[in-house]
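User: My advisor, Dr. K., asked me to get a structural model of this assembly before our group meeting. I'm new to this, so sorry if the format is off. These are the inputs:
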Amino acid sequence: MGIAIPGFPASAIITEVGPRDGLQSEAEFVPTARKIELIQSLLDAGLRRFEITSFVSPRAVPQMRDAAEVMAAFRDRDDAHLTALVPNARGAEAAIEAGVDAMVLFASASESHNLKNVNRSREASFEGFAGIARLAEGTGVALQGAIATAFGCPFEGEVAVEAVTDQARRYRDLGMRHITLGDTTGMATPALVIQRVEALAQAVPDADIALHFHNTRGVGLVCAYAGLSMGIRHFEASIGGLGGCPFVPRATGNVSTEDMVYLFHESGVETGVDLDRLTGSARLAEEIIGRELPGQVMKAGPRLQTASTDSVRTAHG
Amino acid sequence: MGIAIPGFPASAIITEVGPRDGLQSEAEFVPTARKIELIQSLLDAGLRRFEITSFVSPRAVPQMRDAAEVMAAFRDRDDAHLTALVPNARGAEAAIEAGVDAMVLFASASESHNLKNVNRSREASFEGFAGIARLAEGTGVALQGAIATAFGCPFEGEVAVEAVTDQARRYRDLGMRHITLGDTTGMATPALVIQRVEALAQAVPDADIALHFHNTRGVGLVCAYAGLSMGIRHFEASIGGLGGCPFVPRATGNVSTEDMVYLFHESGVETGVDLDRLTGSARLAEEIIGRELPGQVMKAGPRLQTASTDSVRTAHG
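Assistant: The format is fine. Below is the predicted structure of the whole assembly, which you can bring to the meeting.
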């Protein structure tokens, strides 16, 4: 563990979203057994919260067609908290049946992104959420709310902070305590993180706010650091940085889990994760999808892994 | 410009090190005309401080054999501050002759890295610096001091903060005001930045401290952000992220200038640089060396570049 930074929390919780958000954008189907192998490896590294799959139409997202099978492999792990993305009542029924701990409902803070993403207005999305909330009643399955385009919209540009706080209030009104701000297209900046976290502390003081960043413009971890500096304790990340940017083919997507764990530990913030094992999971993710992923720590190795003076060429300055 | 962050400086100065630190590790010689084209492009983007070349033995570093020619192309630019890395008296004579504004002297904070890098003890390095200081007297050429392995050593592991403050004091004793901490192998963390900047404010209160980070473990910009939070106003970066890691082939090296400018502007810190032009320079750097560079903003484009809703595939969450 590194030196503690004044004002930072002593520990943080990382939800691994690679199995859902990361794999979802892979064109080629990843065999169910390999998904299970990757999740098992992440559990072995010490991660305990997962966005594990998505109960969507197999026609719309063929990669997630094995949602129930993936859940079945882990639903008896009482030490793991498993959530699934759920777009509608049909998905909610399947998710409840599959034994998820919580369903993640999502809408965008900007109307045009919501229309593009789920083909309905934000108002219609919230009508659907009310129906899902009724389905969930008495099942013991919790609801979580995700706010997409919380730091900017690829179609509309800036997103007003009020659009985010209003949506958070609506989630709270539906009984959701856990609310995630999603940096859908890498538009978050540390200044916007500070501004939005401050506004949410006023608007929904009893909510548990989680932050999800993309590294599209290289500042994903800076945004997480800004979140820590504001006392945020819950973050989402994707092993190896799995999951590209849907808008720019050459750009990076999700912040990688192992780089986040490295930064947190070096900032005195405990995560409960074994970084060495986690970089092994990142390399497994690379092997499974068959190409290089953007995570850095798995390539560079541990910070204090010393080299032999014979083994390197000189840098000269 | 983004929202200002409390405690951050209103402006910062970025020294571009791509032409020296970035290109130096390129095995294939980059034609002098292309180096000049790249530097001109960076000047056109608004950068005004350059580590432009290195006056080293052409046998040791063939890439820098055109140091005098590169300098000759820009020495009359009175609005640009041009420095060169100088390893010994012979290099210093050539640098003074070539008309540099300042010579950068360098030694490592750890003995084994100094031995490996320049094949002499730190004590011997400082004896050499005293000789260079005498050469520089009366020429109008300033001296700057760089501290390599300031955040950790690939051979020795952790580097004591006292090793850094002691070296900074020795540079001050030789009359150097501008002192750079170099994160030679990507071992800097924000906590170490805070610790070292605090210690230097005590040890050399009148020095102008600059920070140079590598993105080897993904946290280069987080370290720069931590530097800003401590009031540091001077940073070094390399266009496109030119310059790999000499220790790990797959790992990233220098923080990219355009990503740093993006972060600074979005944090309310002015740099005087036109980011659009600068991403053009980054693409030029990619073209010149013929491969993809790690810079992110040049791939993702401006933050507020809005897409058409017809142009993208959906992200679904």
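One thing worth pointing out at the meeting: Chain B touches chain A through 81 residues (CB under 8 Å).

User: Perfect, thanks a lot.
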